[in-house]
Amino acid sequence: MQVAIASGKGGVGKSTITASLLYFLKDRYKLIAVDADAEAPNLGLLLGVEEWEEEREHIGAKVAKINTETCVRCGICYERCPYESIYIDEDGNYIVNELTCEGCNVCGLVCPVPGTITLEQARSGVIRKATTKYGFPIISAQLDVGRPESGKLVTEEKEWAKKLMDELNLEHMIVDSAAGIGCQVIASIGGADLTILIAEPTPASLSDVQRAYKVVQHFRQPAYLIINKADLNPGFTALREWAEAEGIPVIGEVPYDRAIPKSMAMLKPVVEAFPDSPASKALKEIAERIAEEILG
Amino acid sequence: MQIAVSGGKGGTGKSTVAINLAVELARRFKLVLADLDVEAPNDHLLLGVELAGEEPVNQFMPKFDYSKCTKCRKCAEVCEEHAIITLKDGTPFLMPNLCSGCRACEIVCPVPGAILEAFRVIGHTYVTETPYGFTLVTGKLREGEERSMPLVVEAKKRARNLDYELLMVDTAAGTGNTVSKAIEGSKLLIAVTEPTPLGIHDTELILQLGKLMGLKTWVVVNRADLGDVGKVREIAEKYGAEVVAEIPYSENIVRSYVSGRPIVLEDVPEAKIFRELAERVAGFLGGGE
Hints:
The complex is a heterodimer. Chain A folds into 2 domains: 2-49 and 132-295, P-loop containing nucleotide triphosphate hydrolases (Rossmann fold, 3-Layer(aba) Sandwich), CATH 3.40.50; 60-123, Alpha-Beta Plaits, CATH 3.30.70. Chain A is built from 11 helices and 11 strands. Chain A has helices at 14-25, 43-46, 76-80, 106-110, 150-168, 183-189, 203-218, 238-246, 259-265, 270-273, 278-295; strands at 2-6, 31-36, 54-66, 86-88, 94-96, 117-131, 137-143, 172-177, 194-199, 223-227, 250-253. In chain A, helix 8 (238-246) links the parallel strand 10 (223-227) and strand 11 (250-253). In chain A, helix 5 packs parallel to helix 6. Chain A is elongated and about 70 Å long. Chain B is elongated, with a radius of gyration of 22 Å. Chain B folds into 2 domains: 2-57 and 125-287, Rossmann fold (3-Layer(aba) Sandwich), CATH 3.40.50.300; 66-113, Alpha-Beta Plaits. In chain B, helix 1 (14-25) crosses helix 10, helix 5 runs parallel beside helix 6 (177-183) and helix 7 (197-212) runs parallel beside helix 8 (229-238). In chain B, helix 8 links the parallel strand 10 (217-221) and strand 11 (242-246). Chain B is 34% helix and 24% strand.
């Protein structure tokens, strides 16, 4: 089974909760973890991964290059670039800003001088694999800064993970997705059997999780909800009401607990570092429910 | 003049810093705040305002006039997103979700009128007057759309067309090219971080981006008491950035976050930190540094 964990908003505890759930579920199932937040990957850190066993470069992004020698400075590329990624330097040369170029090649197509603008392959980042000290493997990615295509990195991560599942005879893939609802998240949720949403009782988190849920609905998947920092804002009932109205089962609540940031500083899942803390007890119950009601 | 608030990891407090700085800086500058976290825009919620002035962001999509199409397949060949597929006989079909609207297909099509203009709404931009003396511009990607770049470009354009002295942009999490697009053109980049190992890891990435873009960069450490600020200082120094403020974990901030009222308006110690930071920014922008 493939389970995606998503939230819309960043910082609501996706990776913290994922790491703790993996910690509990590892004894019962043969798992693989995928950190699908290619722009800010943290799950490996939280699971104490210090060294990666294998690393694959992802060459896939394309970037336009302008040959200033043959460029006639007509400015057509500058006018037509859909992303305003061409600028003129102090000497009047037209230059592609590689940090914002999407590689669509429109500039190359409109350039009147053949061969002046070329589309070149660029590295978009790396995908890597490690075996955690808990025994299960993790696949993680790191987008190079300023690169497009984080979604394609995530798709490739999941393909690698699927191969490993076949080779190692693993049962479940747990995908920790990025914040937002764009290509990375779509790649994370697409192909999953179900998504576990994580939200905290704040208006911002509610708004973002509602958006993530719409993505889940696009893929016609069942969704479940975990409420993190559940006691943060006692007057705020809108999150629960929304889940109820949409028929999204709430599989548990985790209280705000200082043990969580402390465990993060120790680079350990909170359930390992502080097993008796209120958050850890709640997470244990949630893991049990996930085992019984979802993974079977 | 433009400044940016960013910071690799999600949930470190970018929006909290952005809105409080905006409220405070609006006393000194005619200010526009652009929420360019188009996948999860929240500044309006934190400011307690309803989004207004909605405009759709229409993205070009090719529409094939099959009576004119010669099935030459050039459109499909040139599509870097592989959004156009062709049947065996060369008849093109579009997969709308993959289309980036770049018009490369239209440019190469040899038959005038074989590719017609169609559009789809990929999101919206909003222009909202806040009760705090500044204008908020928001970009919001439609759910199910993959590409946030066009929304960032459009929202930023809409913000730039307004009358302002200072444009402040609040970016998404991460360090991909939509974040660079949002930051582009800034005189100052303020990276918000947490002093946890994860926060520090992601801060390094945003500092790399700032350096690549040649931006003056400051670091604001949020929830400073939950970790080791010394480590943040070390990493900041490595990239020629400076730690300019430390904000403690605070129930007051959580309450203000939840209630949609900027903390800088309250008479609490945390408000002073934002006021001092705003003063420092104003000093920098006024040529004070």
